[in-house]
Amino acid sequence: MTVQPSSPTAVASAAVTDPDVAHRTRTRTVQVMDAAGRPAAGAQVTVEQVGHGIAFGCIGFDETERAWRRLTGATPDPAQEALLDRLDELWFGLFDTATLPFYWGTFEPRQGAVRTAALREAAEHYVSRGARVKGHPLVWHTVAPRWLEPYPDDEVLRLLRERVRRDAGEFAGLVDTWDAINEVVIMPVFTKDTNAVTRVAKSVGRVGMVQLAFDEARAANPAATLLLNDFDMSADYEHLVEDCLAAGVRIDALGLQSHMHQGAWGRDKTLDVLERFGRFGLPLHFTETTMLSGELMPKHLDDLNDHRVDVWPSTPDGLDRQAEEMVAHYRTLVADARVQAITYWGLSDHGMWLNAPGGLVFADGTPKPAYDALRGLVRGQWWLAPTRVTTDEQGRVGISGLPGRYVVEVDGTRHEVTLDDDGTDVVVR
């Protein structure tokens, strides 16, 4: 490493011109040296971005189901496989972080019959192409296994601890980010169905359930990033965070859900949420974002699950609205340095939660305007495409862009450089 007294004259810069986002730009100087250790003045260098520091994510449920069908010997449908290949191509064309489904009730539908192999295959599919993987969730009262209900509370808690340790440990090194526990605010008072997790939460309490999930996951994978995740953006969630921190729970990041079936939050509400939850000094992950390209859900409904329709199409106005609101929402989030991850909850309309038109892609694999608009930000305006530059008289070239991973290629040799808050200059030979 070396520090130069002045800035290089040659700078490869991502066009981060949005004034709300430009302050997150980072710069770094790379000095190219020849084989004899002399500055390589006038050298031709290619600089390109290969990854964002901010996690731009989407669920990877389709790939998980494909892996499961393959492992169980199901006969592949050529048309379905072609569509999944197309969706996979669109996924990697925009996203870099996959959320995979570890819902206990579907992951282990019969006691001891776990779908570890399918989830591992899906995770490896994403990791092999440079994506990050997150597991969702280790503890949740919804989609809890029915076979758990007859057990007494002490046995439920033992099995719950065992499940968290097993899966957090089994996937360590492959899945190192987890929603450790999901929707705790409502967990002990949930009445939509009976389940063993809600039952024990009533006796253990919210903080006790959070402590259980974090302690067991941390013990199984000390390197994991563990989230407390919730849809409740009220003061109740703030109080839960306060209570957990006071009890000594080490929360790595706060998960904030933003399913906007009843209309976009808008800038004011989003900024309010960022301030209220940002005050804890923890990284913020927007874990579940949805915006509709069709008619909005009625405002009077308190529980989104109460709105059920067989057909819920996109509309011309809805498609335009979704694209416009998507861009505004992502700009607001990326402008806040506390936001480290944004996950969209579904690439395609096929299989979308509540049958809503919330995908970025139609069910047939055709991108919606929202997909193109979001890609124009994430892999366009906020991305440095391969750029040819010439080093200055001291063999230096500067890189400027959003935090992330960049590659400097010299004479066919590629050197990876990270843009972050460490502005120390880098020497490559």
From TrEMBL:
Residues 1-20 are annotated as: Disordered. Residues 1-19 have a biased composition (Low complexity). Keywords: Carbohydrate metabolism, Glycosidase, Hydrolase, Polysaccharide degradation, Signal, Xylan degradation. Residues 77-377 form the GH10 domain. The keyword Protein biosynthesis does not apply. PROSITE patterns: GH10_2. It catalyses: Endohydrolysis of (1->4)-beta-D-xylosidic linkages in xylans. InterPro entries: GH (IPR017853), GH10 (IPR044846), GH10_dom (IPR001000). Gene3D superfamilies: Glycosidases. Its EC number is 3.2.1.8. Belongs to the glycosyl hydrolase 10 (cellulase F) family. This is Beta-xylanase.
